[in-house]
Amino acid sequence: MNLALWIVTGLLAAAFLLGGAFKVITPKEKIAAGGSSGRWVEDFSEGGVKAIGALEVLAAAGLVLPAVLGIAPVLVPLAALGLVLLMLGAAATRIRRHETKLVMVDLAYVALAAFVAWGRFGPESFIG
Fold first, then answer.
1. Contact, 56 vs 86, CB < 8 A?
2. Which of 13, 21, 31, 89 pairs as cysteine with 60 (C-beta 3.0–4.6 A)?
């Protein structure tokens, strides 16, 4: 179970680090021009998109660094819970925009992050 949690955590951290960094450094217009998966930025300001990207980068760091460094490892499941909330918001945005095919991707991220939160709060907690 611990190995599965680490694999999922690593994949989530990599995905959100790359995706978040992309949102932070790429202009909103360029993200929107990237195809149907990037049109959601039309609903947000430039600062809002950058804030979402920054949250994703922070969540990626929070998934891995506390456990690796042994400093406040309780932050790992909290970061995973934050990603659950962030991706539920993403799914709600997709539903509002009638982008139903992409909602399933967001919900897959919700399920993976919820698995990490459950595992690190419960059976494979770093505390205790």
1. yes
2. 13
Domain annotation covers residue 38: yes
> What residues make up the domain containing 45?
2-121
Read off the pLDDT of residues 34-67 as tens digits, 9 standing for 90 and up: 887 888 999 999 999 999 999 999 999 999 999 9
- Three-state SS at 80: helix
- Residue 76 structure tokens: 């790992």
0.85 exceeded by pTM: yes
Give the Cα separation of 78 and 64 in Å (integer).
Answer: 12
CB burial of 88-107 (b: ≥16 within 10 Å; e: otherwise) equals bebbebbeeeebeebbeebe
- What total of structural domains would you count in the chain? 1
Residue 88 CA, chain-centre distance (Å), reads: 10
Write b or e for each residue in 72-85: b if 16 or more Cβ atoms lie within 10 A of its Cβ, otherwise e. ebebbbbbbbbbbe
CA distance 15 to 63: 12
